[in-house]
Amino acid sequence: MLPPLKNEEVLRGRYKIRERIGQGGMGAIYLADDMRLKGRQCALKEVEYDRALPENVREEAREQFLREATVLARLDHPNLPKVSDFFSIGPRDYLVMDYIPGKDLRTLLLEARRNKRFLPEKDVLNWAEQIANALSFLHSQEPPIVHRDIKPSNIKLMPHGLIKLVDFGLVKILAPEEVTITIIQGQGTALYTPLEQYGGSDAHTDIRSDIYSFGATLYHLLTNEPPADARKRFLSPESLIPLREINPSLSPRTEKAVLWAMSMHPDERPHSVAEFKQALLGHRDTPTLPVSPLRVMRNLPPSPSIAEYLAKPTEAVLAWSAAVLFLLSLLATLIR
Question: What pTM value is reported for the model?
Fold first, then answer.
């Protein structure tokens, strides 16, 4: 394991390290100043490979990193950080992204728990809508992109309310006939990881794996309690406590949608983020409800009197004509 980068160290003559702001299984994340674009701060995601792996495996992993970094650099979405550069220095690879200020949702969750309150459902659903938009964008790429590590600490709330889904460290490009090197990419975080993402193969990982992690993340945000992980649920299905048993103020619709997303088998989950979003949020705008006949009658103006009706020339002619026809039919009946 190589020593961490030092503060003030400059990479590629451009990125001046300020401090380390995160540490993951594959390497650190650093805050850096972009010396070429004055005033711009960026986040450097470091990827360091296990030296115990065979050299050919490490080389294949690095080639995979370059392919995926190239794809990520083309992405442009308001709820995703922009990847602006990538490079290698010795045995390490680096991904350069926008630095996202603000608190991550794990921090907000822990603050709420310390204060013995729940995060407002309305706020969480607003964040969920933005996360869903980001995931739909990733999944709609050709080939689709699966994030594979959705969790509260990887979602940041910017000061003006915009959500950013960060940390592409475990991203998987679903290229046909291409197997992701799981040893390199890691497994995600156990609490939010679906069962199919465990083990040494990603053959069964697809966009529905992100949906599970998304649902597990919402479960944690809405209840202040971490969900039972997939392995525990496999052995003990009743270990996942329904959300409203923990937070009774939640709507039944929210609980039902989240539990659907967290179904153990991928085939039992929503088949797309759009389907999950519809189940969770429905139509955010209040629909225009049909007005009942009773309400229509109540809102009608009062009926005019007979005198008012006959005062109008057209109505008067029609009324007298109807009266004459009625009298003629009555006389005809009497004569018979």
Answer: 0.76
Domain covering 101-286 assigned CATH 1.10.510.10 in the classification: yes
Other C-beta atoms lying within 10 Å of the C-beta of residue 73: 16
DSSP letter (8 states) at residue 49: -
For residue 227, pLDDT over 60 is answered with: yes
Residues β-bridged to residue 93: 47, 88
What residues have CB less than 8 Å from 321, skipping those under 6 apart?
A: none
Tell me: pLDDT of 1 over 70.
no
DSSP per-residue letters across 34-85? ESSSTT-EEEEEEEE--TTS-HHHHHHHHHHHHHHHHHHHT---TTSPPEEE
Hey, which residues does 27 pair with through a beta bridge? 24
Please tell me the distance from the alpha carbon of residue 248 to that of residue 144, in angstroms, as a whole number.
37
Domain boundaries along the sequence of the chain: 1-99, 101-286
> Crossing angle, helix 252-261 and helix 273-281, to 10 degrees?
160
Q: Which residues are catalytic?
A: 149
Question: How far, rounded to the nearest angstrom, does the alpha carbon of residue 303 sit from its chain's CA centroid?
Answer: 55
The angle subtended at Cα 211 by Cα 207 and Cα 213, nearest 5°, is 115
| 10-11 and 15-24 strand pairing | antiparallel
Q: How many CB atoms lie within 10 A of CB 190?
A: 14
Whether the per-residue pLDDT at 304 is higher than 60: the answer is no
Helices (H), 81-206: 105-114, 121-139, 182-185
1-99: CATH number: 3.30.200.20
3 state SS of 48: strand
